[in-house]
Amino acid sequence: MIIREEPLQHLEIAEYLINQVQKGIIKAGQKIPSENDLCEQFHVNRHVVRQAIARLTNLGWVTPQQGKGCYVNCLPKPILYVLSSQTRFTENMETQGVSHESKLIHWEIDLPDLNEQESLQLDEREYVYRLDILRYINEQPLSITTSVFPCLELPRLEQHFDHFDSLYGILLDHYQLRPIRSHSMFQACLPTLKDTEHLKIPENIPIIRIESVMNHPSGFPIEYSVARVRGDMQKCVIEF
Question: What's the domain of life for this entry (predicted)?
Fold first, then answer.
């Protein structure tokens, strides 16, 4: 293996070790080579090796143990998430037999920002509900989604938050409403500090940002949402 000049050396060492894990040469629970061994193998100094190990740690591949070395983590298999006009988190997870949970961690009534106005075709003086929903699979945080609805379309929505477990369950049970996805835009980006706290990830690890508009069955926009998803825990399938 050819090692480049700094600052790329540590990236190539990290990539080499990740490939060793992916191929099963180093298995979950096993220790990766020591700093001394890596220095000798790649003809680099200890600082470069420590940068490589720090990257593996930040990406979640290994966990350092004081005085013992670094051990490979047992990473969860990414969950398939089918994205279609009728996508529902609860139904997606139940179909796959995956343990899941949704928590409403914040809600407010507020005036819409410019994106919300444009996406929901609202006047700047029309109030909206803004909900932050944290979703889990197998007791691990998967995504946090901010969903925005016009207040006029969902009167007294907050009365149904006491035993929250499914946003679309509330919409269907109390408003006979099943929104239809109009479009979604995907973008890889870095998480905000608040998102790192909720998703339990380092601040330098990219996430998948999914910006979507959902329509009322009558055809007008009813929901604008921005989901921030851990890319290491989900594979998105687009259905046409």
Answer: Bacteria
